[in-house]
Each structure stands twice: as structure tokens, then as C-alpha cells.
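stuck on this one:
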Amino acid sequence: MKVTDKSLARLETDFAGYIEGDKIDELFAEFGIKFAAGHWAAGDFCDRFAPPGYNSDDAGFSSDILDQIDRVKAAGIAGVEFHEMVFLNASGERDDSRVEAVKQKLADTGITPTNMNTNTWTDPKWKLGGVCNADPAIRKDAIAVTVQGVGIARDVGCSSVALWPGSDGWDYNFQVNYGKVINWFIEACIEINKAAKAAGLVFGVEAKLHEPREGNMIIPTTQAAAAVAKTVNDECGGANMGCAVDYGHEQMYAVEPAYSVYLLKRLGVPLANFHVNNAKLHSNDEDRVCGTGDNWRLADFCYAAIDTGYDGWFGEDQFTYRMDALKAMTLSREMFANVMKKALMIYAKRSELEAAQAAGNAGATIDAVKRILI
């Protein structure tokens, strides 16, 4: 982001009140806020209660990646995240014609490719793990899939690549040897990071407490992800590996999301990407519309991003099952913008807030922000 005294001075005049439409574009441009959506947020949604999909009765609804990009554009969103699997053929091999079709669609719509995620959980072969599978052949295959995604990310024009190890972890105590699976994960990240670094891409790991694993995923918290990233960076040299922080995942284990942002900054671990959405504390990964929960907490998170100098993307990661996808993406962008505006307004008066924080005075800190947040 780009935050200057001149831009902060415009907040209470040019951006007064609840902002919508072109005012959101103007705010994002003024402060260099880069906002994206995962392509999946623009598609159909299915779960165990509606396996065919909630839009499966609509013959006119398409979840093809090109149609998803069109919806992202229609929602006024500037960037799009991908999963590498949308660029593969039925045999799991890279489909160059698909890569070219997406690149052309991005050029036509003016949408920026941001992050490439790696899917190592959908295929049944991953049910016992990907890069941490007990079978060394499957571990090797999972790393190869991720490295293939690095190449696709480079060719599509992404700036980062991420691994969310959805199938890696355990469901019961004693199911795995924790030391072995941690070693396998770090070894895999070293290989992937080397490939990403060679391709000019930042590599990030996205933590999550559980789900689909019922016990724990291999990297349950951002703090664990940071420890892995530091270990990998020590091995590879530099600081190319970082963390992709998902706001809803932080809610699952009830850490303060803003705290995680500051911790990464202090540890020298890059923030590779942000996912924004909403979920209740200690709940599952709800991926609901951003800005529909505790907006003091969300504003605190946005303030942390400003205060630590984050300059990457904020990407919608949401599964709004019973809502029109275009409407849900539009609402998330709009409400995120308004909460971010409040965080910027607090930052404009940060001397008052910092004075109260220096005294450890909770009442004074609330006084410093209450008229902005309420």
C-alpha cells in the first residue's frame, strides 16, 4: 500500500460516509490497495449436503474458468487467484491451450493474475496426504505437482505461488509420527521454494487448524508456518518463503489476526498473500462474506497491514453457497473497502492511539478508535 499524509487527509472529505461504486476504486487507487478474488469464489459451490452444486439446476450457470474470470471482472475486482488444476487436462498434465486461453481472457478483461495455489487434496490418491504421505512415491508426486504449478504460475504471470496442504495431517492421536511428517513437510518446502525462487516467484504456505483433516493439519497455525519458513529460508538463503494468511483460518484457533501480521514482520518472514473472508471464532472454515463479523477485529487486522507496510494482494477466499456468487464478491469488496477505510482513519490519528497504547490504558485506546469504528 502507499499511505501518505496527503492521502490520509482526504479520508474525511473525499471518502466521507459509507463508500460504494466508483469511490471504492478511488480509495484503492489512492492508497495502492490491491484487491483480488479466488477464481473459486466466482463459481458454483457444492458441499456434502448438496454434492451436485447449489447452481446445478441452472443450465445457464457455468463454472468454467473463463466465465469465472468474467464474474470477477463484473464484481469490479482487479486481480484473480488460481488453482493450478484448472490448467490441467484429464490426465493431470499441463494443458498449454488452457494456459493461453486464460492469458488471453486476462488480457481482454484487464484482470491481474496474483497467486497460484496447488491442489493436493481433491484426487483420492491424496486422501492420506500429499507432501507428507507415508508413501514416498506419493510424496514425490505431490512435490512434482506443486513444482508444475510454479511453472504455470510463472507463465500465466502470477507473482506468488502457495501451498495449502489440505490433505496433510492426521485424524487421530498416534496416527502419524509428528517428527517424521514435519521433516517431510520441510523437505518438500525446500524443493518447492527453490523452484519458486528460480522462477522469480514468492512462495507461501497457508496454515489452517483442521478440515479436511479432523485432528490437525500439518501446519495448523501461522506461527507454525513462520517457523517452517524461517527454517526453509535458512537452508535456501534469502527470504523467499513466507506465509499466506487467511483471516478465517486465524479465527478457527482464535488468535488475533493482527498479532500474526506483526509477528511475521518481526521474524522477517514475508507475508506472501492475504485471504479475506469471515468466520466465527472456534468454528469451521466458513468462508463467508468479508465484513459480516467482528469488524473491530477486522479493522485491527487491516491496521496491522498498513502499519507493517504490507504491499501485496488482499484476495477473497469465500464459499458463499446459497448466495449469488457475483453479489457475494461485490459485497465482500465493498465491505472490506469500508473497514479498510476505517483502519486508515485510525492510522491517520495513530499518535493518539500510540500514546494510549504506551500507557497500556484500554479505556484510552477505545476512546481513540470508538468514533471511527462505531
Q: What stands out?
A: The chain has a mean pLDDT of 97. The radius of gyration is 20 Å.
